[in-house]
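We modelled each protein-ligand pair independently. The example shown here corresponds to the zinc ion entry; the chain sequence is given first, followed by the ligand as SMILES.
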Amino acid sequence: MPELPEVETVVRFIRPKIVGKTIQNIIPQNNYDKVLATHTSQQFNELVAGKSIIDVGRRGKYIVINLNNGFLLIHLRMTGRLLLNLTEDDKPKHLTAIIHFSDKSSLYFKDYRKFGRLYYYESLNYINKKLGVEPLSKNFTKDWLFKNLQNSKRQLKLLLLDQGFIAGLGNIYVDEALWFAKLHPQQIGSSVSRKKSNALHGAVQRLLQTAIDNQGTTIINFYFGEGKSGNFREQLQVFGRHDKNCPRCDSLIEKIRVAQRGTHICPRCQHI
Ligand SMILES: [Zn+2]
């Protein structure tokens, strides 16, 4: 699933290409009307038709398209992709929606697994209430993290995956950040020392920024633009590297289950 760096990469790719365009309509494909999550197809179109795109940004894992009145949000979920052009490889049956612009160009939403959704909101209040702190914003400070870890009785993996706590992290970057901070994913938040909390804070910010600089991580499903993949995979230290050696201590990396999620740890570097 695309996480913060992958969504940010998509945002940076489409922003210069669609800002200034006016939406003509948004048509669900293959009778998949539920791709429009907040309204019926007719209502949705009444709300977006004729509106211009002022900016494109990101909140957590949502792509936020700022219209001259209201917001069109897109969540890619597992396999959603936004394309400006279709190629022969893009099967029509995998399209879930097409955004038509008044200049006759289009933005195609291709989604093999069909979990991706489009939303329309008058304001961002609803989404801001649902989502936690942005980890690359000034609100995500060392003090904030330590204080909020202190108040939590949850396991770190669960806590960090919770979009209502920190927005945008997923399985890849949580495993990587915990490895960097030498924290076990099943350790309870309130038991984390100030020193390790600071290490986790630094790891989260450094990882996300470096991953964005490398246009995200492509394991299987993440592509942006016309089939471009992210380059951060080569820099992963533990994720997807079970039975390989820990880059820090040479022990074998293990894959365990935490909260139903495959979780990669170095048993020597990360213990409770
Ligand atoms: Zn190790």
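The domain at 142-265 is CATH 1.10.8.50 (Helicase, Ruva Protein; domain 3).
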